Amino acid sequence: MPARRSPPEYNISTSTLAFDQHFTTTAKGLLLLAEIVSGMLVWILVGGTDYFHLSALCWVMFVAVLCWVLTICLFIIYLTGAHNRIPQVPWTMLSLCLNCSATALYLVTAVADAISVNQAIRGRHSYNCWAASSFFAFLTTLCYAGSSYLSYCAWKNTKEEQ
């Protein structure tokens, strides 16, 4: 009599990515959220005006949207724990490079944004939006600088462990 086979077991899990509930309470998570919110305010405030007449504000929009999209991608990667599932990518080095680059780009962007405020008439919609976006650009620069510091510390710790 042939041996009785048991039915195959199937993995019923619906997702291979896990949601890290505590990531948003860490300093890294909070800084990423602050970068997303303040960066979004920069490009929304500039985008709501006739910014395309000034090349400096076109640069502001380019940097703000680019950094915003990259930061959202990085946030999702850390939030879902994908960085733990793809160990081939040097995440600490990638994060360090992204944050340092974003800090430098946003510093130039914030200065260009602040200088562009003088091109608008005081008290008008464009003036108010550009002044507010300049403030948030400097705030975003500080957030990226903080993330750069945390990324540097994490990179240094991984370097020392090797």
TrEMBL record:
Membrane topology: Multi-pass membrane protein
Signal peptide location: none
Single Gene Ontology MF annotation: structural constituent of myelin sheath
Compartments in which it is found: Membrane
UniProt keyword list: Membrane, Transmembrane, Transmembrane helix
Annotated MARVEL domain residues: 23-156
GO biological process: myelination
Record bears the keyword S-adenosyl-L-methionine: no
TM helices/strands, residue ranges: 29-46, 52-79, 91-115, 135-155
GO CC field: membrane
Name by which UniProt lists this protein: MARVEL domain-containing protein
